[in-house]
Design goal:
The chain is mainly α. The protein has 3 helices and no strands. It is elongated and about 55 Å long.
Length: 65
C-alpha cells in the first residue's frame, strides 16, 4: 500500500507527482496491469520459460565475446 503525507505548503501538482513516483516504485502499477485480465497457468509458465530462454541465450552470447 502506498501512503503519501502532504508536506507543508506543497501544491497539488507536486503531491500528485510524488504519488505517481511512489506507485511506480512500489510495483503497484505493474501488478494492476498483470491482474487486469485472467491468464491461464499454462500461459504464465510459457511466458516465464520464454523469458528464461531469452535470458540464457543473451548470457551465452555475452559470454562468447
Amino acid at each position: 500500500m502506498v501512503k503519501l503525507t502532504l508536506r507543508e505548503r506543497e501544491s497539488i501538482q507536486e503531491a500528485v507527482r510524488r504519488f505517481r513516483k511512489l506507485v511506480e516504485r512500489s510495483g503497484l502499477k505493474r501488478e494492476m496491469r498483470r491482474r487486469e485480465y485472467y491468464e491461464k497457468p499454462s500461459e504464465i509458465k510459457r511466458r516465464t520459460r520464454l523469458r528464461a530462454e531469452r535470458r540464457a541465450r543473451r548470457n551465452r552470447m555475452l559470454a562468447g565475446l
